[in-house]
Amino acid sequence: MKLRTIIAGPVVAAVLLAGLAVSAAELTRYNAKPGSLKMRIEGTSTIHDWQVESSIIGGYIEVGPEFPVEPGQAATPGKLEASGEAKIPVRSLFSIEKDGKKYSDRMDEVMYEKMRAKDNPWIVYHITELVLKEPAKSKDAPYVCDAKGTLAVAGVTNAITMPVNITPLGDKKIRINGSTTLKMTSFKVDPPNPLGLGIKTGDDVKLIFEWMVAGKPAAK
Questions:
Q1: Domains along the chain?
Q2: Beta carbons of 163 and 98 less than 8 angstroms apart
Q3: I need a surface site. Which of 95, 125, 193, 216 has the fewest CB within 10 A?
Q4: Average pLDDT for residues 170-197, to the nearest whole number?
Q5: Confidence of residue 47 (pLDDT cuts 50, 70, 90)
Q6: What is the mean pLDDT of residues 211-219?
Q7: pLDDT value at position 37?
Q8: What residues does 168 pair with on adjacent strands?
Q9: pTM
């Protein structure tokens, strides 16, 4: 084996490792900020519409240097470097009236049973791709994006696509909100028939979320 080959191998490996280190260093992590989160599920039945909510969304998002993190930041439409995970405890979901008051403990228990919460205690979303469709039109306006990812509910994982709005708030805080419509049966969840009284629950549900994430404040 020639000397140049012996030397070249470690040099190439070192260069590749250095490149990976630089790439990793360019990613910035934003963690879920407690107290400013909401996930809502809306559905229908033959007697009335219904809604359940959770105020707990854990997780994080890691973004590249082109991701808009400041209000009004210039951004070019196209794919953004972003990955992350959002997690919601199934038992943090509670049925509510339209005015926000608690609705029914019985409905909650039926919901947990149908979602197989004992064996699958979390709803988990992983983002796999984020495409900027429309930059912010002002400092207070959102960046309009399409998000692709996987959603795991009741032990079943499906790929989903949904529109999301990303609004940088300054001080290393970002609000992310969006909505999508899904079918319960796509996750092998049978629409409930409460108390067996012939009340039918619609298969389609709408998920609406507002998620606040924050980066580490600058050292003083």
A1: 27-214 (2.40.128.110)
A2: no
A3: 216
A4: 88
A5: confident
A6: 79
A7: 85
A8: 174
A9: 0.84
Q: Is residue 80 a contact partner of residue 132, using CB atoms and an 8 Å limit?
A: yes
Q: Which of 98-102, 168-172, 180-184 has the lowest mean pLDDT?
A: 98-102
CA separation for the pair 10, 17 (Å, rounded): 10
Cα distance between residue 103 and residue 99, in whole Å: 10
Six token digits for residue 10: 């470690």
| 3: three-class secondary structure by DSSP | helix
Tell me if 174 sits within 8 A of 213, measured CB to CB: yes
Size of the chain in residues: 220
The closest alpha carbon to 187, from 94, 128, 125, 105, belongs to: 125
| CA–CA dist 195, 158 (Å, integer) | 30
- Integer Cα distance of 140 and 55 in angstroms: 24
Q: Which residue has the higher pLDDT, 98 or 132?
A: 132
SS3 7: helix
Q: How far is CA 29 from the centre of its chain?
A: 14
Q: How is residue 41 written in tokens?
A: 């599920």
The secondary structure of the chain in percent helix, strand, coil, rounded to multiples of 5, reads 20, 45, 35
Query: What distance lies between CA 182 and its chain's CA centroid?
Result: 15
